[in-house]
Design goal:
By secondary structure, this protein is of the alpha+beta class. The chain has one domain. The protein contains 2 helices and 3 strands.
Length: about 80
């Protein structure tokens, strides 16, 4: 079994799901886990770690970086 490695931290569930969609489109399996210990009184939208198999870390980072670059270009044109 390949160990999982954190490639980024998503600020909330919707951002984590967006990153997972990008990774899935690149053929990379990903998993989410809480980035901080859950506080029962906190909101239910905590930051999440995005984990991928160790042998796909570079591909995952490239895919996430491409997403970030595309977002920046979109913001500049608005």
């Amino acid at each position: 079994m390949t160990s999982l490695v954190q490639v980024t931290v998503a600020g909330d569930v919707s951002e984590a799901e967006q990153i997972q969609e990008i990774l899935a489109a690149a053929g990379i399996d990903s998993h989410l886990e809480p980035a901080v210990e859950h506080d029962p009184e906190a909101l239910d939208d905590p930051p999440l770690k995005v984990l991928v198999p160790e042998d796909e870390v570079e591909l995952a980072r490239d895919a996430i970086e491409a997403l970030s670059a595309a977002d920046e270009e979109l913001e500049e044109t608005e």
